[in-house]
Design a protein that fits this description.
heterodimer; A: about 425 residues; Neuraminidase; 2 domains; B: alpha+beta; 60s Ribosomal Protein L30, Chain: A; 4-stranded mixed sheet; 4 helices; globular
Chain lengths: ~425, ~170
């Protein structure tokens, strides 16, 4: 009788696990996350919460699990009844029976204000260790330890660079204020970089992640500012009459492309991040805006209505003739190169809806990744596998991601306000 | 997913119903201008010349031009308004105005910033052509960042595609 009872419990908890997978709503005080869709080939993995400081182990396990699930590339295999922390305690056959391909184990402790985690990733089928690494961080950086472990697992099992330890920036609009917010890649650990009454838009990461350029209306019109994330010091770098906007960093961090209207229509200029060396590079007389440097620094993608409606164009970063790239019906905005430079992502407005789409630069083929709505301002994760964008749900602006193959979407709800203008940051 | 989209649409419709109607609708009333002057003035003689800028019945009471989608040229319907402001500014060099271009939300924030600037610059050029001095004029764009009406519908968008003529002095 008792046996039956515990079996029942097992089945129930197994079902619970399944249910949780089917509806992965991870909620917290800060924000909640919904995942839609799943990857085609999911890697079955079991993660045993680390031993030692078990409470911390469980917290870290939550972070790692959420990170991996958000990619759509992993399936969590239940760990009930087994909790090995060392390789010698692992019953590989049991894990194989459960259907896991990989198993994560380890120990964690806190000493002298530092978290010290020893993590191992094991190949359940071959009975070998894939990863064995010590991860340490300050006591208040539990989530950073989780992100690092998730990166180790992701890199080993997919072959792609992990992006869980990266950051994102976005603007949050409240009723009477605008905040520029830097957060972890999963939206947690929010830090307000700037808060003011006037609008903020178009944040842009310096290539080394140490500075942000953005547009602020604090002087009564759109002006470009650069702010250090280390010292928080900020200064206007372009504040000409009219509008100063759309900053983009060159890959070497030595140039900013910006858009000014002081010579007439919105045109693209280059200048140094300290505000010197201004030089105009586009001469269309149309609206040329949203420049984005290619990874090799040689070309600029931009939005222009020089053909009559907003479409995506490319031009040499040194200036020169522009070439139109999008010819589809509707309007195209906000282009950004993929990290490998082979394609670009953009917002496509057609039939009254915005979609996130990618286009191959070689063959010109376009692929729509999302189901449509108010989806704007896409940017690639540094590994090119996930795209972050602004969307809308339940009547307010939210952050969303879609895998670069369009299979897995995720919605991130901030606690309050309208989240907008997100950009994925570089590798730390 | 579809359900969600539908409910968002409904929400927006509701939001739209609650938003204010275009101010402009009240404008076309070029009735007898002189007769209406001293309404609440009790005993005092009718002498005080009302600055037409503060006269709610003057064409100068209109302070906005409106546009079709993705258009920045001042529309024929708004030309008399802009011309009247140009004339007034040319006769009153002590006044200054800031032209504030706005857009509906369809488009990226940056494209709309450019479009709003174009709208404001267009009104500024027309004011200058009509006799206002360049030193009296400045033009800024708020793009889609400061919508007057909220909601994903034409009623809201129509109100947000405009240039405001803001007397700063």
């Amino acid at each position: 009788m008792e046996k039956k009872g515990s079996l029942m419990l097992k089945v129930l908890s197994g079902m619970l696990g399944l249910l949780m997978l089917a509806h992965c709503a991870v909620s917290s005080a800060a924000l909640s996350i919904e995942i839609i869709g799943a990857g085609e080939h999911q890697i079955p993995i079991s993660l045993v919460p680390m031993g030692g400081d078990e409470k911390l182990g469980a917290q870290i396990n939550d972070v790692v699990t959420s990170d991996l699930l958000r990619t759509g590339l992993f399936r969590m295999v239940d760990t009930t009844g087994q909790s090995p922390h060392e390789t010698v305690d692992v019953n590989f056959n049991n894990w194989q029976l459960r259907g896991a391909d990989a198993l994560g184990i380890g120990n964690v402790s806190v000493q002298n204000g530092r978290i010290d985690a020893r993590f191992r990733l094991l190949d359940v089928v071959k009975h070998v260790q894939l990863v064995g690494e010590a991860v340490s961080a300050n006591e208040n950086q539990m989530r950073a330890v989780g992100h690092r472990i998730a990166d180790l697992i992701y890199e080993k099992l997919t072959g792609d660079k992990g992006i869980f330890s990266t950051r994102i920036v976005y603007v949050n609009r409240q009723t009477r204020s605008y905040s520029l917010i830097v957060a972890d890649s999963d939206g947690y650990n929010e830090k307000v970089v700037l808060k003011q009454k006037e609008p903020i838009m178009s944040p842009a990461w310096s290539p080394d992640g140490s500075h942000l350029a953005y547009v602020s209306f604090e002087t009564g019109h759109a002006a470009v500012f650069v702010q250090s994330l280390l010292t928080n010091q900020r200064k206007p770098v372009a504040d000409f009459p009219g509008s100063n906007s759309a900053p983009a960093w060159s890959p070497d961090g030595k140039q900013l492309a910006i858009v000014l209207t002081h010579d007439g229509s919105s045109q693209i200029y280059l200048l140094h991040p300290d505000g010197t060396g201004l030089r105009r590079i586009s001469f269309s007389g149309a609206i040329d805006t949203e420049p984005n440097f290619s990874p090799d620094g040689q070309s600029l993608l931009f939005t222009s209505d020089q053909g009559g409606s907003p479409q995506i164009y490319v031009m040499p970063a040194a200036g020169g003739a522009a070439q139109r790239l999008t010819f589809d019906d509707g309007n195209c905005f906000s282009p950004r190169y993929s990290p490998d430079g082979k394609s670009f992502v953009f917002a496509h407005l057609i039939g009254g809806q915005f979609y996130i789409a990618v286009q191959d630069l070689q063959n010109g083929q376009m692929q729509t990744l999302t189901t449509g709505g108010w989806e704007r301002k896409p940017s690639f994760a540094p590994n090119g596998k996930i795209i972050l964008f602004a969307s809308e749900a339940r009547g307010r602006g939210i952050l969303a991601t879609v895998s670069s193959d369009g299979r897995v979407q995720q919605h991130m709800f901030t606690q309050s306000g309208d989240a907008r203008e997100p950009v994925w940051g570089p590798q730390p | 997913m579809k359900k969600l989209v539908i409910s968002i649409v409904l929400l927006n419709l509701l939001a739209a119903c609650a938003s204010e109607k275009p101010k402009e609708a009240a404008a076309p009333a070029p009735a007898p201008v002189a007769a209406a002057a001293p309404v609440a003035a009790p005993a005092a003689p009718v002498q005080t010349a009302v600055d037409p800028l503060n006269d709610p019945h003057s064409i100068l009471a209109g302070r906005s031009t409106y546009y079709p989608f993705d258009v920045s040229v001042v529309q024929a319907a708004d030309k008399p308004l802009v011309e009247a402001h140009a004339k007034y500014l040319s006769q009153h060099p002590e006044h200054t105005v800031r032209l504030e271009g706005n857009c509906d939300e369809r488009g990226s924030a940056e494209y709309n910033l450019g479009l709003g600037q174009r709208r404001a610059d267009g009104v500024m050029k027309m004011l200058e052509a009509g006799g206002a001095q360049a030193s009296q004029l400045s033009a800024v764009s708020y793009g889609k960042e400061k919508p007057r009406a909220l909601g994903h519908n034409e009623a809201a968008w129509a109100q947000n595609r405009r240039t405001d003529i803001d007397y700063t002095k």
